[in-house]
Amino acid sequence: MAPLEMPTTHLNQHVSDPTVTKDRILGHISNDIIPERNLGSFVSTSIDGPSQQLMLENYCKNLACAHEYPSIKDLEKRCVDMIANLWGSPETTNHIGAATTGSSESLFLAILALKRNWQSRNSYLSSSPRMNLIVGSHAHVAVHKAAENLDIEVKILHVSDASGYRFDSAQLEPALDEGTIGVVLILGNTYTGGFDPILEVTSILDNYEGRTGVEIPIHVDAASGGFVAPFTGVSPSTWGFPIPRVVSINASGHKFGMVSATIGWIIWRDLQNLPDRMKHTSAYLLGTSETFTMSYSQSSIGVVLQYYYLARLGQEGFKHYILASFERAQLFSDLLEKTGCFRCINNAQFTSLATMTGCESAVKQGIPLVAFYLNNWAKKRMPLLDEETLSRHLFQRGFSVPSCKLPMDGQCKSLMRVVVRPTITTEILDNLLKEILNILSSYGWDDSLEA
């Protein structure tokens, strides 16, 4: 074998030693940030021994091969059923769903279903209005990508301080018309982790339909909150399938669903909510099978690991991990504000530790995420320091804490975000806080001069 030169733009001419190749790759990526310190990410970074074994033994099984691997497809159905029940699927409905590559694919499928169902309901119109989708300015970019690719106008309602950085239902009714195919609401938004007021929006849409006869469904993007809300005492009757107008929900199993491999879920409340035009029969492999997802070949690892965590943790285990994450988020939020330099804008999602551990219903609507920014006192005393600069300093010290811009009415609000995933320990948060304090001190902060 020839000495290995790591290829960049063209393949090497000769075969290389596998161990040397592996070592070179490991060396190349060794300076990347440690996954547990990637604190702006929602993606799970833990994997225990049994799940590693399951991953190694099932990575080569294609989820599309339903007849070759019927047991894997059975696990997928079990996951769909268990998740649908967590989301309050009524016994009187017949839910349907599937595993996807992630919530981006799930959102595309959900919005496509909204479009197809709108077209079916309005096929009698001689001149169709422009189809539109209503979202908040805090919606994930995947929603905008799906709408753009499906030729659907996006009507954006800006969030604000007054709306609690959530969907502003007060702006909704003027935006509605007969071309509105649906409203996308978020259970755990990317910026602050808050839950949108789904019941409020439902009431507005109910009244609008009563006056106009125009039916407008809701899709809930629960990419981050779908595996949080069921375990914090937040009843599905306030956000899930018990609400008839909520026709579909998506979630990411690789976020608070604990799975380390990428996996998404899309579930419709009832069979009638999934248009027949989206169902396709495949006969490429042994036998025939029906499919409605965008991807075809897909590793079964995500499904197997999702079932593993659902089966292993159960209600009690998920509740333990989620509430413990809230506890650490509350502590970190309190310590940030005690510096006198920061304002944490989502403290309403937390409660005091004593209250939370004693009464699960005290946990507010949101996910364990700390969203914060430098307050006016800090900006006045340290004019050269802003959120983006602080984020850059932290990255240089081995922590990824992104500074993002939350689109608000006519402006963008700078925020920093720490997602307290179940694997983010108190030690990691303590070390992060120490680095933040060191950076503040380098800009002239003195804890004896707190605001």
UniProtKB/TrEMBL annotation:
One of its GO terms (biological process) is L-glutamate catabolic process. Keywords: Lyase, Pyridoxal phosphate. The modification N6-(pyridoxal phosphate)lysine is found at K255. Pfam families: Pyridoxal_deC. GO terms for molecular function: glutamate decarboxylase activity; pyridoxal phosphate binding. The keyword Transmembrane does not apply. Signal peptide: none annotated. SUPFAM superfamilies: PLP-dependent transferases. Its EC number is 4.1.1.15. It catalyses: L-glutamate + H(+) = 4-aminobutanoate + CO2. InterPro entries: Glutamate_decarboxylase, PyrdxlP-dep_de-COase, PyrdxlP-dep_Trfase, PyrdxlP-dep_Trfase_major. Belongs to the group II decarboxylase family. This is glutamate decarboxylase. It comes from Botryotinia calthae.
